[in-house]
Amino acid sequence: MKNILWGLSLLLLPTLAMAEDTINGADTAWILTATALVLFMTIPGLSLFYAGLTRSKNVLSILMQCFSLTCLMSILWYVVGYSLAFSEGNQWVGGLSNMFMANVTKESISGTIPEALFAGFQMTFAIITPALIVGAFAERMKFSAMLLFSSVWLIVVYAPVCHWVWGGGWLSELGVLDFAGGIVVHITAGVAALVAAIVIGNRKNWPQTAMPPHNMTMTVTGAGMLWVGWFGFNAGSALAADENAAMALVATHLSAAAGSLAWMACEWRKFGKPSVLGIVTGMVAGLGTITPASGSVSPAAAIIIGLSAGIICFYATMFIKQKLKIDDSLDVFPVHGVGGILGSFLVGIFCASDLGPFSGYGFGGDNSTIGEQLGAQLTGIGSTILYTAIATWIILKLVDAITGLRVDDEEEAIGLDLALHEEKGYDI
User: Fold this and answer.
1) pLDDT tens profile 389-401
2) What pTM did the predictor assign?
């Protein structure tokens, strides 16, 4: 009888193996939805969030930059980006076997979803990352320079770092945790933004002249879209409709809420009044900081991460602008860069399955040790900061030599809407 059962189990093995390579309808439906949500984050979410923060004479330039980057990064991802990030290569970068998505067919499978869907989902990440950087040089960079810089940056910085972490590269082998892009998206975009703000220089008359947001209603609308879209960003990174996606969604929401309240409290205490700008910026800080940890920590840890994000990113913003006098126009580095660094570090702590007396209060993740994981996280953070900073500086200098980076003083005074696009955002 035992021999019969053993023989039957051997006959079933090929079937079981084939089952692992079949498309799961629920997973596919969820990632289709998540892909739409992440694209929704860029247009219209990030577009409106950023546009409302600029002065009225530059509102269309921001919308144009985000929209054009969505188009251009999509084509570049199809041509070479996906191949460099996810094709089999070496520890540093993928190969060119999937240029023009040569081997991505209707029959190709990635896990339990079609490979075309996986490539499309990752495309939306490649779109929003360069778009985040736009906020650092808002109101003063040439449109042509922005397009050239973003194109080279996607290929030279984003695709290799993506391969390091998610494409089987050296950070992946080291065991670095980055569930949805704290390192790949937020640290790279944040560091590039800081370098760009330094290289391009401050806006004319900043900080002597106040340059407040022209339309907070637009910014809050965009912020709400970002919050909703971020569920696709983080929960979609589970690449399945499962318990990991569910927990990532809850962690994402709680961190955003905690980050908003923490930033509001800091601002209320420092300036005497809470602002709408503060609470929505705290939301973005909470979302960016939970991103690398969202699939690895508990809801209780997510709240602590969100509170930390609201406080630390608030004071980072004050330090960058008031102490260092760097005109990172829309606070890309102190919110996304610092948030990505903080979240990528804290996941090394809160991923531990045993956090001593704190475990009884709902803390703890899936890993058993802290020390080894923290070492991997610090390596990933440090190497990404260093590589991104050097590569971004070189790209900016090359673009400056080819087209020039910055509009002239007259164009900046007129506003980029009229100077570069011969249009106005408002005609009233």
Assistant:
1) 999 999 999 999 9
2) 0.93
